[in-house]
Every structure is written in C-alpha cells, then in structure tokens.
C-alpha cells in the first residue's frame, strides 16, 4: 500500500501512551439491540445476513441484560446498533441496565432519535459516545453521509451543555487519516471528555469495498500518525484510547478471548467473543429462550488457544493481507489482539 503525505504537528507531547493490559475478570458487553440505521456509512461493520434485521423488544432486552450480570464484578455495557437511538424504548433499557449494576455507554451516530437527551439524565448514562470520522463536513460526510457532521456536532454540544459525559469515536481509514490531527482542536472546542481512535475493521461494508479509499492504512502510516495525534490530544487535556494493533519486539501476545470476558451480542441471538469473527457463523454462544448456550463444534473459541508467529490467529485467518513477511516468510511484525488498547490520560 503506497503511503500518502502525512500531516503531523511537530508539537512535543507531555504524555506517553501506556498499554492497558487485560485484567482478570474484566467484563465488557457490547449489545446490539437492533441492526437498523438511518445512515449507510462506507465502513459500517454490520452484516445483516449474519446479524439479522430485527429489533429486540424491550422485554427481551431486559431479559438478555440479566444474562450477563455478574454480581461483584464491574461490567461495562455498550449499547449499539445500527443506530440504537432508533429504538423507542432505549431510555427504559438504559435505566434497567443501571439498576442491574452496569456502567452504561450508548454509541450513536449523533442523530439521537426519540429525544434521548430529554428522556435520560447524566446520572443514568455513564457515557454518550458519538461517531465522527472527520473534523469538518467535507471529510466526515464523504464517509458517513450528507449533513451528518452538522447534526452530530449540534447534538454533541447539546449533550455537553446538559451535563452528559461525552466521547467521540474516529475510525481511521485511508480516507481520513491525514485529517486526524485536526480533531484535537474540534474536540477541545466541543469540551469532549474522551477520544477513541479506532482501526478500520475488515467486516461488513469494509470487507466488500475492495479498492475504495475507505480502507485500512499501511502500518507505517498508522504508527507515524496515530500515536503522535493521541499524545497531542492528551496534551490538550483529552483522555485518548486507541488500539495497539502492532506488538513491539519482545511483547507477549495475549488473546482477550482467553484472559478477559467480552461479549458481542446481536439481535438474532448470536454472541461472539471476538469482533473479527462477526462476519462468520462461528460464534461461541447463542441466546435461546432467554438463556445463554455455549455452542459445540468448531467455533471462534476453538482458535483462541493457537499460538502463531503472526500474533492474532483470527487476523491471520480472516484478513491475512494485513500481515507482511520477509524473504524467509517470517512475519515482519506481530498483530496484537484487536481488543488490546493503549491510552493517554490528558
């Protein structure tokens, strides 16, 4: 992949990233309560053939939330879609989750349907996360759709004014990596608490858009841009989290599927442990009659025990083009677990 010109500020950072190690007992529940959305983003990872087209009723949502409660353990619940605010009972789902002891985040494209900000309070919602893929309409709307930037920014301002903890998610692709450095000024102006920089997953729309500009960036581009921008944003007082992606020499590979608890739930009842697997019917669990059932046979969990020179076995199996080899066919670098994060606290 040919590198493009990189625009990175020479400003020195005051902080350095640290890798957030997987902690025993760490629990994250990513709950897709529907797959419908008002947008058609070029990099959307939802695959309706695999994830279904349905929308869970509020009674089902509440029953499924009970399945993943672990008394005495901190569990992060991230409510997703599609666009979760399209669900008319989202506010009730949030309150039910809080009563069960979850820390609750809602990930939205920024449209906030059904007057969400008027139906929940900041004490009921730990974080409201907005997706922005550019610092201006020209960059963002070319990926997410016309008018999305202005709507999203207006609702970010409203959420901040109303006292909500607000975070922003930026999915890095070839289309927008050269504009990532411009996000710090926008986030500071908007008074955003957290900034999540994400790597583009080769799933859903991204997996079928070969040759388009919305595709993964080269390793050299990622390492030249993302850590530096994260440091600059942290120096401006923003808490930044971004994926490790590439292990450094001597770093030990760990798979979150073996050492942490992560559940990716879809409205058709599939439950995955690894997001890389979501385009394939190899999920570890299914929810049937409001009960979680572990599946037998060849599932994603069967692969997590494998140790390979390339690092993440699922990355090797499902997106091998992301790996480079030397003349002796040894991997030039190792890919970390996609859930391994780095953070810099502003």
TrEMBL record:
Its cofactor is [4Fe-4S] cluster. GO terms for molecular function: catalytic activity; iron-sulfur cluster binding; metal ion binding. The keyword Iron-sulfur applies. It comes from the Bacteria. PROSITE patterns: RADICAL_SAM (PS51918). InterPro entries: Aldolase_TIM, Elp3/MiaA/NifB-like_rSAM, Radical_SAM_PqqE_MftC-like, rSAM, rSAM_sf. Residues 23-232 form the Radical SAM core domain. Keywords: Iron, Iron-sulfur, Metal-binding, S-adenosyl-L-methionine. It holds the Pfam family Radical_SAM. SMART domains: Elp3. This is Radical SAM superfamily enzyme, MoaA/NifB/PqqE/SkfB family. It comes from Desulforhopalus singaporensis.
